[in-house]
């Protein structure tokens, strides 16, 4: 069966990119091809804001090379959008006409509002922040948005970006101290023209290539143990220190920095100065990276237009539904394991044996819903596969630390394996947190064994705590002998952690 495909061409001031999305078996579109060309159209804008003939030809030639790809894939659904460099060009009608006549594409120039709005859509549909300030610094413009309660409140587009700031303030490849001082003063004066930024104390969410490079550079610098940058976070001090470190280098060294694209080496410092300045003004303690940006916002709008609901109600639920489809998880069974796990932890809380926060209850739900996911690959070593898959897959709505929590719980086998899986991330958690997650993991494994035959026979779980013993009373609606065998086999993990013997009584 031929796969459904959809493409977006994003004509930016620095790069032009073609992204192809393919519908997978869960019904969602995922990125299957990503082709980039460094065109730097902003450098072809003349002093009177005309895109030169040379610049137009660079654009046409790039689009013709993309055309070879779209024709090969026999794509018909193609969105072609342009941002600041073309929007700022006074000969934009000529550019649109040339693109239409000389290529397969019909180019649409996004307004300042549309560019900012698509960035906002990408963030709220792929991250779980309810409020924040987004910044998307391109080559020729910088878009800021403020969203609260996941609703767009304010937006603004500044007519400067990493390329134009470099051209305006920095003469050589790297800035002198006097040039940096002038750049910082300019940025502060520009951002302070907005009355909705200063002192907001919200996370700053970076979108686009420069933000992505900042995150990648920091990950390489600290030997970060996870792959992927979407939802990666940095503290304000870490942004400041990375900025100083990059600024201290000769250009040759800067070009060799791991995580930094060679074509961004000359513009990364003005871009990071933008992030630094904004964090100070906002009084933001956190910089978060969204790998999803303008293209994804255009895509979300297109894919949800029939539902009149461009903002997903719950990002994490969407992500976990996709995971369940991808790994053939029996949703009815997963819900039953989750319900059993929640009943047990609530009983343990009532008996004073466990103290959980509302967030911890979320980890119980997510970890139990994905328990044993790795059996999709191999049932014999499913725990190891479960941990690897969840730890290394981007899960929209979950920060990296949160992803590890879910991976530890969903892959729980015993205390020793938990400790081995957690070893790389020990600095991320307190000892008390790890002890708590160890118990939750054992509870989930116990709940899974109560549903061993996937008949979902458990209706209620009661717990009585005695001095050195716990007595579980499990109410079932069918014969429980297969489950009883598994429970007796698995209860030892919970006994060791709670330091109590466990007796399990089954009854109808």
Automatic annotation (TrEMBL):
Q: Write down a Pfam family by its short name.
A: Ppx-GppA_III
Pinpoint the Ppx/GppA phosphatase C-terminal domain residues: 318-483
Q: What class of enzyme is it?
A: hydrolase
Database matches in CDD domains: ASKHA_NBD_HpPPX-GppA-like
Q: Does the keyword Cell membrane apply?
A: no
NCBIfam families with a match to the protein in the record? exo_poly_only
Its recorded name reads Exopolyphosphatase
Write out the entry's keywords from A to Z: Hydrolase
Q: What is the lineage of its organism?
A: Bacteria, Bacillati, Bacillota, Bacilli, Bacillales
The organism is: Planococcus rifietoensis
Gene Ontology biological process terms in this record: phosphorus metabolic process; regulation of transcription by RNA polymerase II
This protein's source sits in the domain of life called Bacteria
Q: Which family, according to the similarity comment?
A: Belongs to the GppA/Ppx family.
Q: Which residues form the Ppx/GppA phosphatase N-terminal domain?
A: 33-305
Q: What is its EC number?
A: 3.6.1.11
Spell out the molecular function terms from Gene Ontology.
exopolyphosphatase activity
Q: What reaction is this protein's catalytic activity?
A: [phosphate](n) + H2O = [phosphate](n-1) + phosphate + H(+)
């Amino acid at each position: 069966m031929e796969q459904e495909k959809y493409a977006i061409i994003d004509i930016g001031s620095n790069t032009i990119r073609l992204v192809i999305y393919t519908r997978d078996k869960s019904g969602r579109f995922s990125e299957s091809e990503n082709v980039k060309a460094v065109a730097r159209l902003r450098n072809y804008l003349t002093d009177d804001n005309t895109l030169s003939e040379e610049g137009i030809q660079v654009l046409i030639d790039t689009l013709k090379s993309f055309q070879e790809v779209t024709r090969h894939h026999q794509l018909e659904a193609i969105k072609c959008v342009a941002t600041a460099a073309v929007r700022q060009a006074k000969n934009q009608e000529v550019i649109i006409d040339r693109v239409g006549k000389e290529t397969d594409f019909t180019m649409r120039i996004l307004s300042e509002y549309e560019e900012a709005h698509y960035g906002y859509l990408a963030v709220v549909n792929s991250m779980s922040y309810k409020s924040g300030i987004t910044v998307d610094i391109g080559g020729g413009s910088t878009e800021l948005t403020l969203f609260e309660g996941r609703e767009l409140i304010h937006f603004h587009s500044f007519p400067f970006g990493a390329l134009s700031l470099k051209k305006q303030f920095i003469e050589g490849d790297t800035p002198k101290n006097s040039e940096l001082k002038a750049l910082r003063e300019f940025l502060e004066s520009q951002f302070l023209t907005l009355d909705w930024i200063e002192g907001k104390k919200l996370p700053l969410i970076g979108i686009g290539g420069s933000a992505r490079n900042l995150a990648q550079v920091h990950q390489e610098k600290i030997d970060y143990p996870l792959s992927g940058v979407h939802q990666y976070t940095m503290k304000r001090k870490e942004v400041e220190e990375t900025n100083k470190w990059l600024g201290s280098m000769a250009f040759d060294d800067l070009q060799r920095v791991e995580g930094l694209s060679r074509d961004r080496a000359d513009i990364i410092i003005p871009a990071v100065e933008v992030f630094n300045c904004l964090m100070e003004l906002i009084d933001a303690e956190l910089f978060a990276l969204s790998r999803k940006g303008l293209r994804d916002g255009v895509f979300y709008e297109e894919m949800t237009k029939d539902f009149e609901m461009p903002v997903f109600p719950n990002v994490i639920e969407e992500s976990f539904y996709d995971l369940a489809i991808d790994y053939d998880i029996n949703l009815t069974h997963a819900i039953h394991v989750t319900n059993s796990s929640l009943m047990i932890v609530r009983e343990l809380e009532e008996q004073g044996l466990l103290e959980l926060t509302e967030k911890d209850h979320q980890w119980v739900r997510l970890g139990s819903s994905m328990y044993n996911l790795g059996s999709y690959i191999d049932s014999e070593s499913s725990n190891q596969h479960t941990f690897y898959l969840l730890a290394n897959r981007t899960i929209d709505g979950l920060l990296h630390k949160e992803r590890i929590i879910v991976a530890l719980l969903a892959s729980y086998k015993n205390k020793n394996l938990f400790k081995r899986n957690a070893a790389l991330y020990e600095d991320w958690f307190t000892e008390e947190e790890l002890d708590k997650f160890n118990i939750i993991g054992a509870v989930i494994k116990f709940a899974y064994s109560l549903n061993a035959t996937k008949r979902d026979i458990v209706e209620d779980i009661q717990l009585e705590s005695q001095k050195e013993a716990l007595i579980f009373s499990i109410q079932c609606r069918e014969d429980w002998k297969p489950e009883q065998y598994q429970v007796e086999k698995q209860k030892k993990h919970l006994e060791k952690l709670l330091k109590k013997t466990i007796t399990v009584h089954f009854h109808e």
